[in-house]
Amino acid sequence: MLKLRSGIFLAVFYINTAVFLILGSPLLLGPRRWAMAGLKTHGRASLWWLRVICGTRLVVRGLEKLPPGPVIVAAKHQAAWDTFALVTLMRDPAMVMKNELMSIPLYGWFSRKFGMIPVKRETGPSALRAMLQEAKDRAAQDREIVIFPEGTRRAPGASPQYYTGVALLYEALGVACCPVALNSGLYWPRRSILRYPGEIVVEFLDPIPAKLPRREFLSQLQGSIEEAVARLHHEALSAATPPPEPDIEIKPIPLQRSSGDA
Asked: Would residue 191 count as lying in a domain?
């Protein structure tokens, strides 16, 4: 039954996405706020289908901690779920994303319309400078700047691998950073079609004030997110009907000095 439900959801999810991209294409010609409304509608529809078909619910905690105005939202990244679900929780988010995604027909066109922030990770410092300028422009528009500090999905329980690009963004913008913990990877595992029933929790944590020294900022960011993720992990696995526990040993590793997270 789990495989059947997961397969049905996978088909519905992609059909739902295709319908929004094709039927919503006229939004490319309208104001950006209309396109953003369409993006959030797609996210909410996907969450609804996930709950109805697979029994996977979204629980949000601490949203009141998200500061108003321009802010960096640094979120744990465990599943593709994060890329559409988090958008529904914020006022006007601009996500830092891989530049190659901008080349995908319709998807890439919409990403540019949304004002997402592309980064060419393979070009090094010049790409980072371009990303920072784009981020400054979005912050000037009073938007939330969303970044995954580890740059890519990390399986639940995997050793944290935070890059320093988020600190460069923090220094360049001079705004507070709101860490976000989640447990999506337990219910939406990587490289699998299975979608497990239960509660995906997204928790907004205490904001980190602007203008802290880089090392202190990175320490607070990684410490707060990883502590909360471990707590959410334990909470999920202690539920009456827990998801499977990932077979991964936790081994913290040093912060990475690379632009790969941008």
From this structure: yes
φ/ψ region of 211 (left if φ > 0, alpha if ψ in -120 to 50, else beta) reads left
In a domain, 12, yes or no: no
Give 199-209 pLDDT, tens digit per residue.
Answer: 999 999 999 99
Q: Are 150 and 75 in contact (CB under 8 A)?
A: no
Residue 199 burial (C-beta neighbours within 10 Å; 0-12, 13-18, 19+): middle
Residue 142 belongs to domain spanning: 56-237
Total domains, the chain: 1
Query: Within a domain: residue 111?
Result: yes
Both tokens of 27, joined, read 């939004």
250 found inside a domain: no
Helix (H) or strand (E) holding 187: helix 184-187
Give 151's Cβ-side CA count (13 Å radius).
20
Reported pTM = 0.89
CA-CA distance, 252 to 250, in Å (whole number)? 6
pLDDT per residue as tens digits for the range 59-71? 999 999 999 989 9
Length of the chain equals: 262
